[in-house]
Amino acid sequence: MKLNVAIIGYGVVGRRRREFIAKNKNYNIVAISDIQFKKDFIRNGIQYFRDYKDIFKINKKLNCIFITLPNYLSSKVTILGLKKNLNIFCEKPPAKNIKELLKVKKALKSKAKLKLKYGFNHRYHGSIKKAKSIIDSKKMGRILNIRGLYGKSKIISYSKSDWRSKKKYAGGGILTDQGIHILDLLNLFCGEFTEYKSFISNKFWKYDVEDDVFAILRNKNTIVSLNSTALQWQHKFRMEISLEKGTINLNGILSGSKSYGMEKIEILSKSKGNSKLKNKFTFNKDNSWKEEVDEFANIIKNNEKVKIGDINNAISVMKLIDRIYKADKKWK
Questions:
Q1: 160 CB neighbour count, 10 Å cutoff
Q2: Rounded to an integer, what distance in angstroms lies between the CA atom of residue 177 and that of residue 171?
Q3: What is the per-residue pLDDT across 33-46, written as a single tens digit (0 to 9) for each?
Q4: Which H helix or E strand runs over 105?
Q5: Rounded to whole angstroms, how far apart are CA atoms 11 and 13?
Q6: What is the value of pTM for the model shown?
């Protein structure tokens, strides 16, 4: 039996999700909502609504929803979906802040059979999976430190809407919007952190959300330095992972904008105090969106646990964001 699906939010991300939902034989798209529609209509058997609340009134029984909405609606619609006994895939960030997300966790407790998955898309990229497999193998020893950079050139990027630049709608700026991906990867590679230092600024774009963040994180094994910025005029993704026996360099990430360059990973071995290139891989195709969508269908159909992007992953990264904001006493 196919899963009846609704997509709530039909901007750039919602349209891309639809592309891969439509290609999966386990899904049947029955409804889509977006405030940009001028009126409600039906096309090719799919009902289109201006108001997302009307999604929950349709006659066809829904099995799951994909939420691709602005941050201030994410937790609200997730909780509504749980109350309607729907499985939910929600894009990052999972909420405006950790306080909102803890309300989602409370709502989920009484819905043990439902599946809730968040779109921490970068975990599915080829270079990230390769790095994770090397780290888990222990062949290069434990992680000593990581330097990370994820930067783009502006806060408002996808459309003319400026909600990303306003704290009451976005919750935060570049760290919440894009930096959340690299923070999630740091949690993936290193586990949770216990100490936090940060410097945060909004002095260039002058919105009431941040456009530049430098942070230093530490746990009992690892020190991390991070720059999440909207002042990177040439877009860049880079992680340098230093281990006891060598280095893993991640450079570039395949994205819809194609602006972060080729996705590559270099593995360097320590050699007489220096490093020697041991291996290099280039990834030419981004399968991450397809893998996420396909995995979610399998989780529902086979009643499996959500292993990547579950509520605990989401809470961990939102707590980290909260602590980085609070670590700069001058940032309000």
A1: 5
A2: 9
A3: 999 999 999 999 99
A4: helix 98-109
A5: 6
A6: 0.95
- Residues 117-141: pLDDT tens digits? 999 999 999 999 999 999 999 999 9
- Residue 71 corresponds to which tokens in the numbers above? 């941050």
Helix (H, G, I), strand (E, B) or coil at 229: strand
Mean pLDDT over each residue of the chain, to the nearest integer: 95
Strands 41-43 and 46-49: antiparallel
Q: Which is nearest to 132 in space by CA: 248, 288, 266?
A: 248
Does an H or E element contain 174, and which? helix 174-174
Residue 238: phi, psi to the nearest 5? Answer: -155, 135
Sheet holding 46-49, edge to edge: 41-43, 46-49, 27-33, 3-8, 64-67, 87-91, 116-119
Tally of CB atoms within 10 A around 145: 15
- DSSP secondary structure letter of residue 168: H
Cβ–Cβ contacts within 10 Å for residue 191, how many? 14
Q: Where are the beta strands (DSSP E) in the chain?
A: 3-8, 27-33, 41-43, 46-49, 64-67, 87-91, 116-119, 143-151, 195-201, 212-218, 223-229, 236-243, 246-251, 263-271, 274-283
Q: Rounded CA gap, 37 and 271, in Å?
A: 60
CB atoms within 10 A of CB 113: 7
> What is the residue type of 172?
G
Rounded-to-integer distance, Cα 110 and Cα 122, Å: 30
- Angle 114-104-54 (CA atoms, 0-180°, nearest 5)? 75
3-state class (DSSP) for residue 289: helix
Virtual torsion, Cα 300, 301, 305, 309, nearest 10 deg: -40
Residues 6+ away with beta carbon under 8 Å from 123 = 129, 184, 185, 188, 308, 309
Separation of first and last alpha carbons in the chain: 50
Q: Quick check: 184 and 317 in contact, CB under 8 A?
A: yes
